[in-house]
Amino acid sequence: MSVASATQVIGLAPKPVRRRISLRRFTTPLVVAVILGLLLLWVSSLELDSIEQRTLNWNYIMLRVGEHLSLTVVASALVALLAIPLGVLLAKSPSKVFRSIVLGLANIGQAVPAVGVVILLAIVWQTGYTTALVALVIYAFLPALRNTMIGIQQVDASVRESARGMGMTSFQVLWRVELPLAVPVILSGLRTALVFCVGVATIATFINAGGLGDMVVNGLKLQRYPVLAVGAVLVACIALLIDWVAGIAEDLFTPKGV
Q1: What band does 1 get if pLDDT is binned at 50, 70 and 90?
Q2: pLDDT (tens digit, 9 = 90+) per residue, 106-115?
Q3: pTM for this one?
């Protein structure tokens, strides 16, 4: 038997395959680095006027990136803390009426355009960071909630029965069997919610919540297209990087053999 065949039999990937996998993991950050490098070279080659210079500087850009990441990460954490337990509860609930009501309310965030959610909350409540945070949670809630439900419900009934036959309680079955098997689907929903948050956080500028939307909107209003381009490219790069990090987390936390 050849070395390659023996390697496949014992379940170890050959070195070329491993190399391809590791290279694929670093493709996204490399692409983002190239895009940002090209963007920096392009902006450096321009003769910026006084308005553009006040925006296209490191202090201003890093401040807006920090605000954008803060909105995205905090909103995503709140979605995970709220949607996963609620999704488990709905998956276990025998009441179809309760499930339909909760899913109907969660669907509102997706049915109403993101700008509508942000502006309506600002009208009935207040402007600022907190309102933008609530709007992001509402908009990104459904993917995490639905995927949690689907992940729990798709666990094979025979697996549950086997666990109960071993003397496990209902909570132990949930914690030690159902949730680990549902992890890939749950993380996929959270990954979608993260990317949603990055995009919708751009609209937070309309209610004075900061973020990279300030650069995009100011570039449009003042017809300063370098400002607009930098803001839009930064949002796209953040979305790519966050999706990449979420993909790695999905691979790491998915139980082996699932």
Answers
A1: very low
A2: 888 777 788 8
A3: 0.82
Of residues 64, 100, 86, the one with CA closest to residue 209: 64
pLDDT, tens digit, for every residue of 123-137? Answer: 888 888 899 999 999
Q: CA Rg, the chain, in Å?
A: 23
Angle between the N-to-C axes of helices 129-153 and 96-111, in degrees from 0 to 180, rounded to the nearest 10: 140
- Residue 83: count other Cβ atoms within 10 Å of its Cβ: 26
| DSSP for the chain, written as a single string | --HHHHHHHTTPPPHHHHHHHHHHHTHHHHHHHHHHHHHHHHHHTS---HHHHHHSSHHHHHHHHHHHHHHHHHHHHHHHHHHHHHHHHHHH---HHHHHHHHHHHHHHHHS-HHHHHHHHHHHS--SHHHHHHHHHHHHHHHHHHHHHHHHHTS-HHHHHHHHHTT--HHHHIIIIIHHHHHHHHHHHHHHHHHHHHHHGGGGGGGT--STHHHHHHHHHTT-HHHHHHHHHHHHHHHHHHHHHHHHHHHHHSPTT-
Q: What is the pLDDT of residue 85?
A: 93
Question: What single letter denotes the amino acid at residue 235?
Answer: V
Tens digit of each residue's pLDDT (9 = 90 or more) over 140-158: 899 999 999 999 989 888 8
